Amino acid sequence: MKHRAIIEKMTLEEKTAVLSGKNTWETRAVKRLEIPSIALSDGPHGIRKQAGAGDHLGLNASLPATCFPTAATIANSWDEGLGEALGQALGEEAAAQGVNILLGPGLNIKRSPLCGRNFEYFSEDPYLAGKMAASYVRGIQSRGVHACPKHFAVNSQELRRMAMNAVVDERTLREIYLTGFEIAVKESRARSIMTSYNQVNGTYANENKHLLQDILRGEWGFGGLVVTDWGGSNSHTAGVAAGSDLEMPS
To answer: Does the active-site annotation cover 245?
Structure first.
């Protein structure tokens, strides 16, 4: 395991502390061992780093940043080169603002016109969504910033999004809802991934061993960070046991 020597020096309290955020957008540091705090920030279409007190709804002012076209717009180009160039620009701005993990791109499948976040998802086609997401990830990570594809998985509506249960058979799950994430993980080696608020077949995504252990880490070989959506942790004990790493915010 990478950094095993540092981990072995950590106390139990320090190990558990770094599994939860320090505040809205930052992780806890362990100064004794020179483990730094890392900064996370929205979003797929422009950096939203708040200058003062953070809130995940974006009510407080953010630093000036470029507003890029939405994923829905860029996907209409079918141009992976364009997606990568946009990702590079996002990565450069994130690095300039001290952001270590950029929370995006979003690549959930558009299943209903009533989903209020369709604009920030690429497509109703999982292959197109995956290819475009992979291009964004390559661009962002080429600038030393970690991309964080979201929301894993089956997050296709905003109505009761933190409580709804997506009931889906295994073939549909894999062929429609997971294909894009699989492409982004395997082709661009995304270094982090965000779980969704909803339940998948009766178990919250962040506590779903089939999603996080069997598929994401086991089958796809993902070795990066799994972070909750903001406020999406119900039991982080269950989440960690299922393969999640970090609950946000604090």
So the answer is: no
Q: What are phi and psi of 114, to 5 degrees?
A: -85, -5
Sign of CA dihedral 18, 23, 27, 29: negative
CA–CA separation, 169 vs 154, rounded Å?
12
Q: For 98-153, write each residue's pLDDT tens digit.
A: 999 999 999 999 988 888 899 999 999 999 999 999 999 999 999 999 999 999 99
Q: Which of 55, 79, 229, 245 is catalytic?
A: 229
What are the residues facing 203 on neighbouring strands? 200
pTM to 2 decimals?
Answer: 0.95
Instruction: Please give the distance of CA 140 from its chain centroid, rounded to a whole number.
Output: 13
Nearest Cα to Cα of residue 57 among 68, 42, 45, 44: 42
How many Å apart are CA 206 and CA 227, to the nearest integer? Answer: 8
In the beta sheet, which residues pair with residue 50?
A: 62
Q: What is the gyration radius of the CA atoms in the chain, in angstroms?
A: 17
Tell me the average confidence (pLDDT) per consecutive run of 10 residues in the chain, 250 residues long: 86 96 96 95 90 74 93 97 98 97 96 89 97 98 98 93 94 97 97 97 98 98 97 95 95
